[in-house]
Design brief:
single chain, three-stranded mixed sheet, 12 helices, 11 strands
Length: 336
């Protein structure tokens, strides 16, 4: 089968060189692969690097570069899909590292009869400094990310969503393209429609790809807030796109707000109980995360604070998204 490898990028000049090297090193025959590159109006050298890669003689069927004036991920993916030509479409984030057998293992899975394939996506740090490793540890932990099957399962199974998915072309022809009104949650909504159209999403633990974690604590907080915010908005048009674990931070923030109101009314017990319960779980998960590491850094003492900051930012983002959702969904419906 032939493959269209699609990459969407916005200001990713620091990671593209490495990713392009990974693509060139793929063990799948290059004469059965095309590469579709979409630049989301970057202000750095992203498009220059894309054009340079397209000009190189790598043996691919073709390498094409497009612009994404809308900048949104969903719009970028749609541009890539519409301009792709091959049997299998593979989505790869720009902030990614892929092993040399990534494409071939996806093709094997699809050729075995699957409609959509994907696998685990461990996080990696750009360098091994103690602080970066601490942020990575927070992102790797189940307490800091999620309990989603597609993040950590070791068995082949069927799931609701995958990272860096490979899709038979017919899947998009039947289920449609990405909803360009969405940000961050476009893959959740797309995968929901794929399942609704009768296709299955196969999680194969042998198909591994890696994603660079955020370089700063502030960047991680901003990311979690954005994730929560878009979940809150997307509930207005696709409530079944999400699982219960997406709303755990929201539940924590609501419980925290309620307990603080009770404190203002002179009742301290709900707040004390909540803090004690959360604190015990937080510290326990922090200790478990550290025990699995060979190296021990003093920065690990900040893990409980990193965890609570991520949970609150995600939960607050969901609250804000839910508050704005009615007006936003009405605007979307009018445009449709």
């Amino acid at each position: 089968m032939t493959v269209s490898v699609c990459i969407i990028a916005y200001n990713e000049e620091k990671t593209l060189t490495s990713l392009f090297s990974d693509i060139k090193n793929q063990d799948y025959p290059h004469n059965k692969m095309e590469v579709i590159l979409v630049n989301s109006m970057s202000s750095d050298r992203t498009r220059v690097l894309m054009e340079k890669f397209a000009e190189e003689e790598n043996g691919f069927l073709r390498v094409k570069v497009f612009d994404n004036p809308k900048k949104k991920q969903a719009a970028g993916w749609n541009i890539a899909i519409k301009n792709s030509s091959e049997d299998i479409i593979i989505r790869i984030d720009a902030h990614t590292m892929i092993p040399r057998e990534f494409v071939s293992k996806n093709v094997q899975c699809i050729e075995s009869g699957e409609d959509v394939s994907g696998g685990p996506r461990p996080n990696i740090a750009e360098d091994d400094s103690p602080w970066k490793h601490t942020l990575l540890l927070a992102e790797k932990s189940m307490f800091g990310s999620s309990i989603a099957t597609y993040r950590r399962s070791h068995h082949k199974t069927y799931v609701k969503s995958v990272f860096h998915g490979a899709y038979r072309r017919e899947v998009f022809e039947k289920a449609g393209l990405f909803n360009e009104n969405l940000g961050r949650t476009e893959d959740n909504e797309m995968h929901y429609r794929i399942l609704k159209a009768g296709y299955k999403i196969c999680y194969n633990p042998k198909i591994i790809s890696y994603q660079h974690t955020r370089n700063t604590w502030r960047g991680m907080i901003k990311q979690k807030y954005g994730n929560g915010y878009w979940i809150g908005l997307t509930v207005g048009i696709c409530p079944r796109c999400f699982s219960i674990y997406h709303f755990v931070p929201l539940s924590f923030v609501i419980a925290l707000m309620f307990s603080l109101i009770m404190v203002a009314l002179g009742k301290m017990s709900p707040f004390i109980v909540l803090i004690l319960l959360y604190g015990m779980v937080n510290i326990s998960m922090s200790v478990l995360a550290v025990l699995k590491e060979k190296k021990k850094y003093v920065y690990y003492l900040l893990l409980p604070f990193i965890f609570i900051s991520l949970h609150i930012s995600y939960g607050v983002g969901t609250v804000v998204g839910l508050i704005r959702m009615p007006r936003w969904s009405k605007k979307i419906n009018r445009e449709v």
